[in-house]
Design goal:
five-stranded antiparallel sheet; globular; about 20% helix; alpha+beta
């Protein structure tokens, strides 16, 4: 199945190393491994855009919801990158759109949508997106 067209522009890309242990007995990357790839993309995006100390702050983003659509299997040895973009900024949450693509052809292999909620590290209660973070994301995604 081919990925449906979308209009998201991705300014961040992270090459992913497919490990032998990611591959299942059918010869393709197990669906659980994709979540680790997308986590790497999220971490790298946030550190690149918000700074390396983003997770040391009083308010941090955590995953509230995640959904993945699989289109084409990835096999061991494939050159794959995870592209990441923030497509929505709310008051306390934001949405990350990600896709795994073949590095050589840019063919979309699967897509992920994650809603991140900002929380206070001290008690886990929801918090507004810090203004500094909002401005940095808006500037990066512009």
């Amino acid at each position: 199945m081919k990925a449906p067209q979308e209009n998201t522009i991705y300014h961040h890309s992270l090459p992913i190393q497919i490990r032998f242990s990611d591959v299942d007995r059918f010869g393709h990357v197990n669906n659980n491994a994709y979540f680790a790839y997308y986590d790497l993309g999220k971490q790298e995006y946030m550190q690149h855009v918000l700074g390396s100390d983003v997770f040391d702050a009083e308010i941090v983003p955590v995953v509230a919801s995640i959904n993945v659509d699989f289109f084409i299997p990835v096999r061991y040895g494939d050159a794959v990158s995870v592209e990441t973009a923030v497509t929505h900024l709310g008051n306390k949450s934001f949405t990350l759109e990600q896709q795994a693509v073949r590095t050589d052809t840019h063919e979309v292999l699967c897509r992920c949508r994650t809603v991140m909620v900002c929380v206070y590290k001290t008690d886990g209660s929801s918090a507004p997106i810090p203004l500094r973070h909002r401005r940095l994301i808006e500037a990066f995604e512009a």
